[in-house]
Every structure is written in C-alpha cells, then in structure tokens.
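Quick check before the chapter quiz. The format below is the same one you will see on the exam, so make sure you can read both the input and the output lines.
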Amino acid sequence: NIFSWTSMIDGYGKNGKSYEVIEIFTKMQKEHQIKPNYVTFLCAISACAYAGLVEKGWEIFESMERDYSLKPRMEHYACMVDLLGRSGRIKQTWEFVEKMPEKPNSDVWAALLSSCRLHGELEIASIAAGELFKLCTNGRPGSYVALSDVLAAAGMWDCVNEVRELMKLRGISKDAGFSWTGTDNGP
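Here is the expected output.
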C-alpha cells in the first residue's frame, strides 16, 4: 500500500540513498500502479534536494498536479526552495518564491535564507530575513544567526551588530553549542 512505499522512500531518503528513492518512486507507479500521495511527493523531492538532483526534483514536483491532480502544498514549495537553493540557483529560487500561488510561509523564507547563507547571497538573504522576521515575531534564533552569518561573510560587521542588538531587544538568544568527545580507552 501507499504507506509502505512512502515509508521506504522516506527511509532511503533519510539515509542518503536518493537514487534508490527515485527507483522506488518510479517502480511504485509503473510496476505496481500505486499513486503517490502528498507525503510521498514530499519525501521524493526532499531526497532529490539532498542529492542535488534538481531536474528530477523539479520533474517530480511538476508531476503532482499534472499527473495526479494534487495541488502542491506549502511544504512542497518549501522543499522546492530547498532543492533549488542548495544547488546554488539562488536567482531561480527567488523567482520561484515570487511566483508561488500563495504567500510564502516561514518555512519557505527559512529555506531561502538558509540557501543564501550557504552561497553568500546577501541581497536576497536580507529580503528573506525581513519576511521571516515579520512572520516570526516570537523569533527563530536560527534565522537571526543565518542572517548574521551572511552579513559577517560579506564583512558587514556593523550590520552583524545590528542583528545581534535586535536579538537582544526581542529577547532572543542563540542556544549554546556543545559537542562530545570520546576515546577508545573509555571514560
């Protein structure tokens, strides 16, 4: 049934087996005549994002409505923003966001901001952060940190300080990072 197939697709995707995801996704439809549902599509597109399979992810996204009459939901749009953004296609990602049929939610803006951070795209990062801050008045520390990182990479230290001051004013703090180390000799 669809739940078993979706679970396999999700499991393979989460374990970095993106090519297997595509194979299972195709086999499910062609050999077993099982139609993917919203979650199946989300898992398949996500696997494409992690593997950098932009064209395949785009093809899967477009097939939702074209082949299955499933109107993509906001989480599918956020996943596509992640797919395009991870690949470094920031301008194409921005155009995709601008053409969305609904107003983007915080997940879409966060995915765009994350991609801008990854690829050092300052201008679009500022727009994404602004939109994200409007939607998340209670604050998402990761969004502030991502914007701060983009600004720091561009050497805009005054702006970095402004972001940090804004975090203080809003009572938002970044969780402290930590790590574990171990030895082969035991504790």
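If your answer matched, good. The CA atoms of residues 19 and 51 lie 8 Å apart.
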